[in-house]
Amino acid sequence: MNTNDITDIRDIKDLVPIPINWWWWAALLLLLAIAAAVFWWWKRRQPEVVAPVIAPLTPYEIAMRALQQLLADNPSVEVFYTRLSDIVRHYIEERFGLRAPERTTEEFLAEANLPAQQMTLLSAFLVECDLVKFARHQPDATDRQRAFAAAEKFVEESGSGLSAATVGAQRPLPHSTT
Questions:
Q1: What value does the CA radius of gyration of the chain take, rounded to a whole number of Å?
Q2: What is the pLDDT along the chain (178 residues), one digit of tens a residue?
Q3: Residue 92 DSSP label
């Protein structure tokens, strides 16, 4: 075989025309249109499932459920007081718009403008919770029951009788002279 022989090399062939049959394309398009119309008709025919609208829980309902859950869980003393305080603080935040969870007890009590009886109850309750959380005070079972009852009483009394307009006026801190 001679490698210099170029007679066996041929030129590139021209493109082979593919016959286009427009009938196939029209039939495919018609079939797709019919399928889309049937799908649209079928979706329209199915009744719409409307999810029931559930009213959001009020701060009172959230706090009362959390209190009942706390009783059911029966955690250790420190966890009990921490959760009890958090429930009341979050209730105050949601109910009255005070940023209670991020502030110290004195800071948000100074801002709260609650009736004197509720302010006294809330103040005593939160001071007791602070003693357990931060000073490692060890209350007994009756103290736990009393603290729970105080939290429940505060939520019950403030859940219906007060409006958000009754809080927000600045009060001086108990130890300040202004």
A1: 37
A2: 566 666 777 788 888 887 777 787 888 899 999 999 999 888 888 777 778 888 898 999 999 999 999 999 989 888 998 999 999 989 988 888 888 777 888 887 888 888 888 888 888 888 888 888 888 888 888 888 999 999 999 899 887 654 443 444 333 444 444 4
A3: H
Q: How many CA atoms lie within 13 A of 45 on its CB side?
A: 6
DSSP-assigned letter for residue 46: S
Whole-angstrom distance, CA of residue 150 vs CA of residue 143: 10
Rounded CA-CA distance 59/67 in Å is 12
- Inter-CA distances, 101 with 18, 38, 94, Å: 77, 57, 10
State how far the Cα of 100 lies from the Cα of 88, in Å rounded to an integer: 9
Token pair belonging to 120: 């006294």
Q: Take residue 46 and report the two structure tokens written for it.
A: 């199915």
d(CA 150, CA 52): 37
Element (H, E) at 110: helix 105-111
The DSSP 8-state label assigned to residue 166 in this structure reads G
Cut 0.70: pTM above it: no
